[in-house]
Design brief:
heterodimer; A: about 100 residues; mainly beta; 7-stranded mixed β-sheet; 4-stranded antiparallel β-sheet; about 0% helix; globular; B: about 120 residues
Chain lengths: ~100, ~120
């Protein structure tokens, strides 16, 4: 089974910061990777699919990159609305990473 | 607008059964694969099950295989999750989600608001 590992588990940042979250797959998954944002008490929201494609309506400050086993989600300038938990997902096995919580520093 | 609405959650004793439903609207339901995803309190997301657009293919997480059954009624735009032999570890918010495209090997573009299932004596 493919395992997805995110780092860090928690990240403290300030508004305006550039934030990078990493997701590693236990074996190559090409670019079959998605990123989701989840706020407390809410359903997840798709941000990025196919590793780097921005879902419609998602702000351009979000970007994704990577292929094979290592992927990153970058928020170019953190906004107040971005404090949330982020999950990566290998969607050929539907496996999620454990999540990265972005907190206010 | 595109919408998924789950229902059927509640409190149930260990070993008992519960049936969740997901009502879809605003898109051509019969052309999309559909998923169930759950989230235990304070924990991360766990994929549970998927059903293809026509119901011919179904896959399950190992943690629910043999206990849960996913089904759909394309004439009613609904998907169901029959949960049998429930355990305390099945306690979670259950979300239904729609694939981004029709294929079940795709990201989850649309999510419902979730329904809470609590398994407790």
């Amino acid at each position: 089974d493919i395992q997805m590992t995110q780092s860090p588990s928690t990240l403290a940042a300030s508004v305006g910061d550039r934030v990078t979250i990493t997701c590693r797959a236990s074996q190559s998954i090409s670019t079959w990777l998605a990123w989701y944002q989840q706020k407390p008490g809410k359903a997840p929201k798709l941000l990025i699919y196919k590793a780097s494609s921005l879902e419609s309506g998602v702000p351009s400050r979000f970007s994704g990159s990577g292929s094979g086993t290592e992927f990153t989600l970058t928020i170019s300038s953190l906004q107040p609305d971005d404090f949330a938990t982020y999950y990566c997902q290998h969607y050929n096995s539907w496996t999620f990473g454990q999540g990265t919580k972005v907190e206010i520093k | 607008q595109v919408q998924l609405v789950e229902s059927g959650g509640g409190v149930v004793q260990p070993g008992r059964s519960l049936r969740l439903s997901c009502a879809a609207s605003g898109f051509i339901f019969r052309t999309y694969a559909m998923h169930w995803v759950r989230q235990a309190p304070g924990k991360g997301l766990e994929w549970v099950a998927v059903i293809s657009y026509d119901g011919s293919n179904k896959y399950y997480a190992d943690s629910v295989k043999g206990r849960f059954t996913v089904s759909r009624d394309n004439s009613e735009n609904t998907m169901n999750l029959q949960m049998n032999s429930l355990r305390a570890e099945d306690t979670a918010v259950y979300y239904c989600a729609r694939s981004r495209g029709g294929n079940y090997f795709d990201s989850f573009a649309i999510w419902g608001q979730g329904t809470m299932v609590t398994v407790s004596s």
